[in-house]
Specification:
Length: 496
């Protein structure tokens, strides 16, 4: 439910009657044989002045109904007299809707796109067809250089971008709306632009759904090749202006690149320098995202990167648990370590690093790392000697967790005493997961995908649903409310 302002909440009756009054006046205006210009202007002024007892959302909804009807009647087609005045009020309404795109994004965008739908079917002369200029007006409003686009506005616009006609027109306009300044000089506008590009989804799910905002446009097929070319042009312009940006903007660039752009680039090999620099010059999320991009190039373009395992190994450290993209790290590590031809001393270092981190990690991450260790032991059976070593008593551990090179960490000569210690974990699910070393290893690997989405609250809920053993609290079955005989409590208390 939308939270009302304090002034509005104090007058709920006024709001109700104001809404009813709006609807009544709108019906009267539409039922009249001739359009009441003064009445229509009064509605537009309500949205402009925003009186306390009237919600802007209610006014926008009423204006939507009014102008949809007027568009269908062709009341805006003339260039003189009333038609001209109605068109001027319609243009003024569009300006006011654009002003409300941030504060009232859900309603404002809904009204805008409903008007676009009707205007596409009943175009205002001399324009014909889809009113693409309206989408450009919306985009120009969102591309502000003083304030970032609210998440709600992005979410709502993203829903309309699932329609192929809106997607095509948005992409067409974004090519010409790339900020002219360097991104480092206008970081807010650059972030807004990247956020809009991140809404461009040319994936199979959107293309197969083949939904359109305006049904009449379905006769025209969506041109994926042309859209991909536009996306290439946009990204080329972004790369030219991205020098010297701050870490937040750099991270957003990598997110957009990986999620929306890289699979549609004509020559992705040109990204190698950008990704290499991102990997070596930054730590944390930026390095992780860059590593994911390099992995994509290694898969698709067959590039080689000799230090990839060392960089991956050094991304596993305690602060990673508070990283927004930690699920990507586990996913990437699982893929990189899939091969059974990797050197055992290299994989042993990952096994020890994961086991050591499981001792100091949040509950949900400890379960993932224990399962991951088990999978690695199944892929590399020679490492199962680490289990046998953990069962024997050892005075010291030769593993050097400070060593950045995994091959030199001496993990191959160590043991998995950490897993043995985790069997005493306070959370039963962690303790049970760590007991895999007490018996024969499972035949099949654990599926990590489901665990990546789990939160600590999910583990807590699962524990609540498990049945605990029932223990007797009394050796005499109670027959009434009286305490059992010879109960110590009866020496000091009497039941009333």
């Amino acid at each position: 439910m939308k939270r009302l302002s304090t002034q509005m909440a104090e007058h709920p009756a006024e709001e109700y009657f104001a809404k009813k009054q709006l609807q009544t006046k709108a019906n009267s205006l539409l039922n009249a044989t001739d359009v009441d210009i003064k009445g229509l202007k009064a509605f537009v002024q309500l949205l402009e002045k925003k009186p306390e007892h009237v919600q802007p959302a209610d006014v926008m909804n009423v204006l939507e109904v009014i102008f949809k009807n007027l568009l269908k009647r062709g009341a805006l087609d003339g260039t003189e007299g009333k038609s001209l005045k109605i068109r001027q009020l319609y243009d003024a309404t569009w300006l006011l809707l654009r002003e409300n795109l941030r504060a009232e994004s859900a309603v404002a965008l809904k009204v805008c796109f409903q008007l676009i739908k009707v205007e596409a079917k009943h175009p205002i002369a001399p324009r014909k067809g889809w009113p693409a200029h309206r989408v450009r007006e919306i985009l120009e409003t969102l591309l502000d250089d003083e304030e970032e686009i609210p998440a709600s506005a992005l979410t709502n616009y993203g829903k309309y971008c699932k329609n192929l006609d809106v997607l095509d027109i948005t992409l067409k306009h974004l090519v010409h709306l790339v900020p002219t300044e360097d991104f480092k000089d206008t970081p807010i506008k650059a972030m807004n632009f990247l956020s809009l590009v991140n809404l461009i989804d040319l994936g199979k799910s959107v293309l197969n759904a083949a939904e359109y905002h305006v049904e009449t446009v379905k006769v025209k097929s969506f041109n994926l090749e042309q859209s991909s070319k536009r996306l290439n042009d946009i990204w080329s312009a972004v790369m030219l202006k991205s020098s010297g940006v701050d870490e937040r903007l750099h991270r957003q660039m990598l997110v957009v690149l990986l999620e929306r752009v890289i699979t549609h680039l004509e020559d992705p090999i040109q990204l190698t320098d950008f990704l290499m620099d991102s990997l070596h010059q930054f730590d944390g999320p930026i390095a992780l995202l860059a590593l994911q991009g390099l992995f994509t190039l290694m898969q698709k373009q067959n590039i080689t990167y000799p230090d990839v395992y060392e960089k991956l190994y050094n991304m596993f450290y305690p602060k990673m648990f508070y990283n927004k993209y930690k699920a990507r790290l586990f996913y990437l590590a699982d893929i990189f370590l899939t091969s059974t031809h990797l050197p055992e001393n290299l994989v042993a270092a990952f096994v020890k690093r994961l086991a050591r981190l499981a001792l100091q990690s949040p509950t949900e991450d400890a379960v993932i790392m224990i399962r991951f260790v088990c999978n690695l032991l199944l892929r590399h059976t020679g490492l199962q000697k680490l289990i046998r070593s953990s069962l024997a008593e050892k005075v010291s551990d030769p593993y050097d967790e400070q060593e950045s090179n995994p091959v030199k960490s001496q993990a191959i000569n160590s043991s998995l005493w950490e897993i043995t210690l985790l069997q005493k974990h306070a959370v039963p699910e962690v303790a049970n997961a760590a007991r895999f070393i007490n018996a024969s290893l499972p035949v099949m690997e654990f599926e990590l995908g489901d665990l990546l989405e789990r939160k600590e609250c999910n583990i807590f809920d699962d524990e609540l649903q498990t049945k605990a053993k029932q223990f007797a609290l009394n050796y005499e079955r109670p027959k009434n409310l009286a305490l059992p005989k010879n109960e110590v409590v009866t020496k000091y208390w009497d039941l009333i």
